[in-house]
Amino acid sequence: MPIAAAAASPLLEWRDPVYILAGFAGIIALGLMLVQPLLIAGYLPGLSAYRGRRVHLWTGGALVVAVVIHVGGLWITSPPDMIDALLFSSPTPFSPWGVIAMWAIFAVAVFAALRRRLGVRPRTWRIAHTLLAIVIVVGSVVHSILIEGTMETVSKAVLCALVLAATIKVMTDLQVWRKRAKLREESIARR
Known about the structure:
This protein has one domain (2-190): Fumarate Reductase Cytochrome B subunit, CATH 1.20.950. It is mainly alpha-helical. The chain has helices at 2-7, 17-41, 49-77, 79-86, 95-118, 122-146, 153-174, 180-190.
């Protein structure tokens, strides 16, 4: 829905194809953020827990690619604006939120790629990934809401609310902060 609304925006008439591609990559990235927590929690029908985790991994890779296209396209169309954004000296209020979310996405991707090699324990990974996911979601949602551009306001607000709701629901349901052994004990005690 947000992509269709953005595609119908009259603001696209004055933009070049690279800028349009960059903007749509940002919209796609936000849409992928809605799917990510649903995949890891196993809330999407037709996917086993194992397959959901595998798709979560690949969707995370697609998210990184979408962010690279988003930032790269904006860099091509306006390098001075991107330098200002990356140096946190941009006058636009949405820029710092996007930059922080971008670095958190890159950090979680690098951490995911190296976690086995570094011998990171599952609990440490879960907590670090969750903290970075919070930064990514909050930064991306604020970044999106503050931008006044081709993305239609209502569909953008609905998508942002869904991303926040899905993230909060999954983090609450999975109780990511608690030790797994304690959760297993409570689960057995309830039976």
